[in-house]
């Protein structure tokens, strides 16, 4: 049957007068079995490891409020029952200094700890006398119990007897560990074991040991927490027969022990600023606690290896006195109970985390429980043997303590040859164990070294990686900065362009440079309130003066539908080439016939536009030539250049020409509007203007056609009038307003459809009146048209209102 090491956690309360040194509590109780520890920022764990909370499980957690009695009942009482039934037990308190180990084990006179209470219960149970606590274990009354106690101290890897007072020289004799052949376990050779008959005797022994410990501490200038104290209670259980005699047969005697250990504080010497003896102490404490930790780890590994069917490693029990002594307990000979003490109020996270980690490993160690043979009391016979001191008992039980210095050695029945072989075997066994241990230690050291090196390597790699990342980041940042700078320049350029455009727009908005457009039809005027504004007289004058700079609707159209850049065409190349040749000739002063030929070429160049001249810089060159003085200018180069320059300069006039002077068909001053152009709305305005222009052109076309028809009609009307001089007065009075009226084209703007209709009516009437005499082809063809529309009578108004006819007339 496997058993695990039992681990209890006891949290020390903060004493009433104390104030905590820990600002933020790092230990939280999750439930009865689990605590969580969050590394605070000040801890090493926070700086070096991950910062996630660490969780630790225990067999049970006792909070600050637990009473000593309750703590004892739940942790140690069950072990006492086992002990009195022949099982071994180990209780040890583990924790940093000041965490409450001694308080848990010894307690105070008013509130005793586990050890005094254990003694109390043992005597309550084995004697008929009950102490005040009255806590006891129910036992079979067929046994007699002998109780022996011993008290030892392990200090700097040496074992001392606390029940031996210091001698006159104040010297302490260190005891050695011996091998008990029968059980195969180590015991402290020469340790005084005192048989106690009552609880009082036991307390006296306990106090004696504590006093000696305090004296030794003073002698050695040590503090109590620097050593491990081991109090052992040995129970010898002997059956009694029906006649109440103790059965003397040693095979029916069971010996069990319970050790209660108050371990030294587990703090590390680097945190305690020790030197000299203190450092040695710390080193040795650390050694035994470290080995204890290693043993736990190895036992745990072996457990896992066993599960995988692998070979088990040697547990380094022999590396310290503490582990060597309690090897059997950790190997399953009885229960092992660990009391983990923590003081989260004035002990740092790192120290307690170390304790917790140890506990976490130890808690999971499972060992195979050794079953002690049960006594069959029915078959017991013989005489009683009574109680014997341990050494006598050992002899009675046949134990051979080979290397015990205090023992004389051999039994008379022992064979020296066999003893020699056994010794050799022991030596070999020891050597083998040593070798195994060295091997395990080496492996562990190598692993640690390797882990350290790996850590260093990983650290380096991390550094390299981080620096590479930084470099990369820096490069990217730089390239981004450059990119941003470039973009800024572009934005600035754009801003400049925008600015200049805005300035132009503003310039255009100024009353000095109005954007003058012909009055739009009613519909468009309504859509743009600004268009309904008319010019003030000053503005009119101004616009007159600057007529050449005014952007008219014609110019606008011309500008927006300007032909592509001349440099793209073949004419441009030729003209440019011509200019280059001309310039070369002028600069070399080759005033020969060549220059004349070139001038002729320029003069005869077809399709010269203002832009072509401007883009090829021909204008400038001609100006230059015009200003140049020629000797014997037989080809009149200078005057020809002047002429050409003027001629080319005039090419620009159609584009930026002032509005056509007023006249028939031109836009009069009243029909002009001044538009203010909002920034960024130029495009919109231009497209609006285009639409307006289109509609104006349509309108214009229609009007022209109407005028043409009217003129024709007027001619015909005149003719008809001449032919019908003899007609009734009524007719002539009807025609008189028309004949006196100005020409139709002059009235163009006043003519609307209504009037046009009247003209046609008169024309028709005159036509009808003269029809008998008329035979002209033109009129005939005209009446043919009417005939096609249907019958015509004098009063037939439907002539003009019949859809087909009316449409034909108005569609023109
Ligand atoms: N559960 C507790 N309730 C009340 N007081 C306690 C408790 N635990 C410890 N103390 C008090 O805390 C102080 C330190 O405790 P203790 O001496 O037991 O610590 P320790 O771990 O044994 O230290 P060291 O390793 O130095 O021996 C003592 O004054 C003790 O009375």
TrEMBL record:
Q: Output compositional bias ranges, type Polar residues.
A: 548-564, 773-783
**Keywords recorded for this protein, A-Z:** ATP-binding, Coiled coil, Microtubule, Motor protein, Nucleotide-binding
Q: What is this protein called?
A: Kinesin-like protein
Q: Which residues form the Kinesin motor domain?
A: 4-365
Residue ranges under compositional bias (Low complexity)? Answer: 520-538
Region: Disordered, residue numbers: 520-570, 768-788
Q: Origin organism of this chain? A: Phycomyces blakesleeanus
Q: Coiled-coil region(s) at which residues? A: 679-713
Q: Tell me which InterPro entries the record gives.
A: Kinesin-like_fam, Kinesin_motor_CS, Kinesin_motor_dom, Kinesin_motor_dom_sf, P-loop_NTPase
UniProt cross-references to SMART domains, sorted A to Z? KISc (SM00129)
């Amino acid at each position: 049957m496997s058993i695990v090491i039992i681990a209890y956690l006891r949290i020390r309360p903060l004493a009433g007068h104390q104030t905590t040194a820990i600002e933020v509590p790092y230990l939280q109780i999750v439930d009865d079995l689990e605590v969580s520890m969050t590394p605070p920022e000040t801890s090493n764990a926070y700086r070096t490891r991950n910062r996630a909370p660490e969780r630790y499980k225990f067999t049970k957690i006792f909070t600050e409020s637990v009473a000593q009695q309750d703590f004892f009942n739940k942790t140690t009482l069950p072990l006492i029952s086992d002990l009195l039934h022949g099982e071994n037990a180990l209780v040890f308190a583990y924790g940093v200094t000041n965490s409450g180990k001694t308080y848990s084990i010894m307690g105070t006179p008013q509130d005793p700890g586990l050890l005094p209470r254990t003694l109390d219960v043992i005597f309550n149970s084995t004697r008929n006398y009950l102490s005040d606590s009255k806590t006891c274990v129910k036992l079979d009354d067929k046994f007699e119990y002998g109780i022996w106690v011993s008290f030892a101290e392990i200090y700097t890897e040496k074992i001392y007897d606390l029940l031996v007072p210091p001698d006159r020289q104040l010297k302490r004799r260190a005891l050695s560990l011996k091998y008990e052949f029968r059980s195969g376990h180590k015991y402290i050779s020469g340790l005084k074991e005192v048989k106690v008959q009552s609880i009082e005797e036991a307390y006296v022994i306990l106090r004696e040991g504590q006093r000696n410990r305090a004296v030794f501490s003073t002698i050695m200038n040590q503090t109590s927490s620097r050593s491990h104290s081991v109090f052992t209670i040995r129970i010898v259980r002997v059956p009694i027969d029906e006649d109440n005699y103790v059965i003397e047969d040693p095979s029916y005697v069971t010996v069990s022990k319970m050790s209660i250990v108050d371990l030294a504080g587990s703090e590390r010497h680097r945190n305690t600023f020790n030197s000299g003896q203190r450092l040695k102490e710390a080193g040795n404490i650390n050694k035994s606690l470290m080995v204890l930790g290693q043993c736990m780890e190895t036992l745990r590994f072996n457990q896992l290896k066993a599960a995988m069917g692998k070979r088990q490693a040697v547990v380094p029990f022999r590396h310290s006195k503490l582990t060597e002594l309690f090897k059997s307990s950790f190997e399953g000979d009885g229960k092992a109970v660990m009391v983990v003490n923590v003081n989260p109020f004035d002990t740092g996270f790192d120290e307690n985390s170390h304790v917790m980690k140890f506990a976490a490993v130890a808690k999971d160690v499972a060992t195979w429980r050794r079953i002690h043979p049960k006594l069959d009391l029915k078959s017991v016979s013989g005489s009683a043997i009574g109680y014997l001191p341990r050494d006598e008992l050992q002899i009675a039980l046949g134990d051979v303590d080979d290397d015990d210095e205090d023992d004389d050695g051999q039994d008379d029945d022992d064979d020296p040859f066999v003893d020699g072989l056994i010794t050799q075997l022991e030596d070999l066994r020891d050597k083998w164990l040593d070798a195994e241990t060295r091997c395990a230690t080496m492996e562990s050291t190598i692993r640690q070294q390797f882990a350290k090196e790996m850590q260093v390597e990983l650290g380096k790699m991390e550094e390299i990686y981080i620096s590479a990342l930084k470099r990369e980041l820096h490069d990217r940042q730089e390239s981004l900065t450059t990119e941003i700078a470039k973009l800024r320049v572009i934005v600035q350029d754009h801003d400049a362009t925008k600015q200049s455009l805005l300035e132009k727009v503003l310039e255009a908005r100024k009353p000095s440079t109005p954007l003058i457009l012909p009055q739009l039809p009613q519909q468009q005027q309504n859509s743009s309130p600004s268009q309904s504004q008319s010019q003030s007289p000053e503005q009119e004058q101004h616009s007159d003066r600057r007529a050449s700079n005014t952007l008219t609707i014609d110019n606008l159209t011309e500008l927006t539908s300007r032909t592509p850049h001349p440099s793209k065409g073949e004419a441009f190349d030729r003209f440019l080439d011509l200019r280059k040749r001309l310039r070369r000739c002028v600069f070399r002063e080759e005033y020969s016939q060549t220059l004349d030929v070139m001038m002729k070429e320029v003069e005869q160049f077809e399709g010269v536009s203002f832009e072509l001249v401007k883009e090829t810089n021909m204008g400038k060159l001609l100006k230059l030539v015009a200003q140049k003085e020629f000797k014997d200018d037989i080809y009149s180069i200078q005057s020809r250049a002047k002429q050409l320059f003027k001629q080319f300069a005039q090419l620009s006039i159609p584009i930026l020409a002032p509005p056509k002077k007023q006249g028939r068909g031109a836009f009069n001053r009243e029909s002009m509007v001044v538009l203010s152009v909002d920034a960024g709305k130029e495009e919109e305005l231009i497209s609006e203007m285009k639409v307006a222009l289109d509609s104006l052109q349509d309108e214009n076309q229609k009007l022209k056609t109407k005028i043409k028809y009217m003129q024709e009609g007027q001619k015909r009307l005149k003719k008809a009038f001449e032919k019908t001089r003899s007609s009734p007065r009524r007719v002539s009075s009807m025609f008189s307003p028309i004949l006196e009226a100005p020409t139709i084209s002059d009235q163009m703007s006043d003519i609307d459809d209504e009037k046009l209709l009247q003209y046609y009516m008169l024309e028709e009437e005159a036509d009808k009146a003269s029809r008998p005499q008329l035979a002209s082809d033109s009129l005939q063809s005209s009446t043919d048209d009417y005939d096609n529309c249907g019958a015509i009578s004098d009063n037939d108004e439907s002539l003009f209102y019949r859809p087909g006819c009316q449409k034909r007339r108005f569609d023109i």
